[in-house]
Write a structure and sequence with these properties.
This protein is of the alpha/beta class and about 300 residues long. About 40% of the residues lie in helices and about 15% in strands. It has a seven-stranded mixed β-sheet with strand order 1-2-3-4-5-6-7. Bound molecules: adenosine monophosphate (AMP), zinc ion (ZN) and fe (iii) ion (2 copies).
Length: about 300
């Protein structure tokens, strides 16, 4: 193949064939694979690059990079931040509805400011668990804090998926997905809100930490009508948002097309990724969606220009 390559092409063949998955979770948040398991599976999935993007911390990155280097896998430093926007409630315009938005930060330096912001978010994650358990008990499904902590034993950031796992372990529900669909979904009967920064604040925090902010699965789960193209445009203009995760299993073809067009119009990086959670999410196998190598190159170039930390 190499000898038939267009001589005018300056792009190394290696790069254009790279398989790049920029959104992957480990058991240090709500994935189910330990870092060594994750690296092994990423190599088995013939990936060349992954970004480790656990929720609200970067605790696993060094180990993943160390093991990745040994296995010939590039691991990009990442984090997935919990953020929110307040949107008007359509039926009662005087009310504001809080809507979660996930923000990926790539190449962030662990500055004191970012570290402290992430610590606040993780503390709020912990704080919400007892209130969640009270709601579940009222629904006839008592669980102890210990049961949830057992499910999160390996995690640096605890979350609803661990509560879901405890519900499964007790036999209240058959799976994580059912636990979310019945009880834990945003605004659901066992849902408890928690502190998160606004999306604008989080974008600023990633930029200040020399990283590159990219919106995660922004039009998934009915968010498209609330997180509008106008709002995304404002984030680009006022906060220097750098990219959008376009290819994600929670975006249908039409949504991907619309997001790709929006990203092009705004000059944003377009990424694709699996949002792998091990056996915690069955629709998201490693490499389920990939990032175009040219877009990845752009991302890495910006990290370097900003003095970020790959
Ligand atoms: P938390 O971080 O505790 O707010 O929980 C968010 C995590 O739960 C993310 O990993 C989501 O992918 C997952 N999640 C959120 N909503 C759902 C849902 N409806 N079904 C399955 N998983 C969900
Ligand atoms: Zn997750
Ligand atoms: Fe997410
Ligand atoms: Fe994720």
């Amino acid at each position: 193949m190499g000898s038939h390559a267009n001589a005018a092409s300056t792009k190394p063949a290696k790069l254009e064939h790279m398989r790049i998955d920029l959104h992957v979770h480990s058991a240090l948040s709500d994935g189910t694979d330990t870092i060594p398991e994750l690296i092994k599976k990423a190599v088995e999935a013939h990936l060349d690059v992954i970004a480790l993007t656990d929720h609200d911390h970067m605790a696993g990155v060094e180990e993943a990079q160390h093991l990745g280097t040994q296995a010939g896998l590039k691991v990009l430093r990442g984090v997935e931040m919990s953020t929110h926007i307040d949107v008007p409630e359509p039926l009662v315009p005087t009310f504001r509805l809080r809507r979660p938005v996930h923000l990926l930060g790539y190449g962030c330096r662990p500055t004191p400011e970012l570290t402290s912001l992430l610590a606040d978010v993780r503390a709020a994650r912990e704080d919400r668990i007892p209130a969640t358990l009270e709601k579940l008990a009222a629904l006839g499904m008592p669980l102890t804090l210990e049961e949830v902590e057992e499910q999160a034993a390996r995690a640096t950031s605890i979350g609803r998926p661990h509560v879901a796992d405890a519900l499964v372990a007790r036999g209240y529900v058959p799976s994580r997905d059912v636990a979310f669909a019945r009880y834990l979904y945003d605004g659901g009967p066992a849902y408890v809100s928690r502190y998160t920064p606004t999306t604008g604040e989080a974008i600023d925090a990633v930029n200040a930490a020399h990283g590159v902010p990219v919106l995660a699965h922004v039009w998934a789960r009915g968010n498209a009508t609330l997180v509008t193209a106008d709002i995304i445009t404002e984030w680009v203009r006022d906060h220097n948002l750098a990219g959008i995760e376009v290819d994600h299993v929670d975006h249908d073809e039409e949504t991907r097309h619309a997001l790709a067009e929006l990203a092009k119009r705004l000059g944003l990086i377009r990424t694709g990724s699996s949002d792998y959670h091990g056996s915690g999410k069955t629709r998201n196998p490693l490499g389920a969606c990939l990032t175009d190598p040219e877009q990845y190159e752009r991302l890495v170039r910006i990290i370097h220009e900003r003095g970020g930390q790959e």
